[in-house]
Amino acid sequence: MKKVEIGELFKSLERLGFDQNEIFSTQTIKIIQRDWKEIVGDFFGDQSYPAELKENRLIVMCKHSLISQEMEFQKMAILQKLTDKKLPTNISKIVLKTGIVPNSKRTSS
User: Fold this and answer.
1) Number of domains in the chain
2) Which of 14, 17, 53, 101 is placed for a possible disulfide with 29 were both Cys, Cβ 3.0 to 4.6 Å?
3) Short name of one Pfam family for this protein (predicted)?
4) Can you tell me the distance from the alpha carbon of 75 to that of 53, in angstroms, rounded to the nearest whole number?
């Protein structure tokens, strides 16, 4: 198998219509979703879900407004844990919203 430099790979993907930032954002949100309970703990992991990443802002859906309020106090600690993970995309802000949280039967594999 031919060895490909990362720059060549991204140039090829761009020619196919893929955007490097979009690829990094997609991978970042998948990693965060996979590791969410490790990042916020079991209780908040069951009550919230990292829904999307937009312009370096992590949008987190919370089952109830009380959960949003409690997590508001933990934003800085969560941001630090995300920074420590050395994700493909830097996250500068967490936005908490109340809404539908998918079933929490996610694994951390």
Assistant:
1) 1
2) 53
3) DciA
4) 15
CATH number at residue 88: 3.30.300
Pure H helices in 1-109: 6-15, 20-40, 42-47, 65-72, 75-84
Residues 37-62: b if buried by 16+ CB within 10 A, e if exposed: bebbeeebbbbbbbbebeeeebbbbb
Is 30 domain-assigned?
Answer: yes
User: Structural domain of residue 21, as residue ranges?
Assistant: 6-98
In the block, residue with structure tokens 């999307």:
52
Residues 35/73, Cβ–Cβ less than 8 Å: no
The predicted model gives 7-26 an average pLDDT of 80
Query: Is 34 part of any domain?
Result: yes
Q: Going edge to edge, which strands form the sheet with 48-54?
A: 48-54, 57-62, 93-98
* pTM, to two decimals: 0.81
